[in-house]
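User: I'm curious whether this sequence folds into something compact or stays loose and floppy. Could you predict its structure so I can see for myself?
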Amino acid sequence: MRIDIITVLPELLRSPFEASILKRAIDKGLVSVYTHNLRDYTSNSYKQVDDYQFGGGAGMVLMIEPIDKCISKLKEERDYDEVIYMTPDGDTFSQGMANELSLKKNIIILCGHYKGVDQRVRDHFITREISVGDFVLSGGELAAAVLCDAVIRLIPGVLGNETSALTDSFQDDLLAPPIYTRPANYKGWKVPDILTSGHTANIEKWREEEALKNTENKRPDLLDD
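Assistant: Here's the prediction. I'll summarize afterward.
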């Protein structure tokens, strides 16, 4: 998979891809992540990428020209499955979306900034708009990093145990059950006996029941869906 991220703050995206699972995936050659500074695609000496909005109003808007130039240049080099715009008013990101995107080959992610982008960008270049929640960030960079992390970890070979991702919360519209590790008894707080019984079928049944109970208590809306 190749991911191209268009941003006005590429330095904000360095750290997530220089550590942990994401770095390991890149080092293995399972994914390539490139950042593109929007200021490199301006036609003015001031490297200006934003301007006042027509009709007045507070806040600056990312202009269409540098975004057009950047996306067009990338598309000259390869075909892209999706051109994603990270925006608070997009479709709420979900595990299902992460699963779907992990199967793509080439993706462009456009990070919004200031008040957002010229609407014509959304009308003519964007194939999918995604939000990471009902709140506003200073820019789309952190949201893009969240999306990348959720997607990349699903690519075969990234996780040490590939079945681990299949038991994550939301994979089957349920939250994960409680989990425990050693010691089995700490300060009198004991691990449920079933988990140390060695009876695989009973353990799986217990986990299913606990996952359902956990979902009913914390996220009953998932069961409604």
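Summary: The first helix runs from residue 20 to 27. Residues 2-152 form a domain with the Alpha/beta knot fold (CATH 3.40.1280.10).
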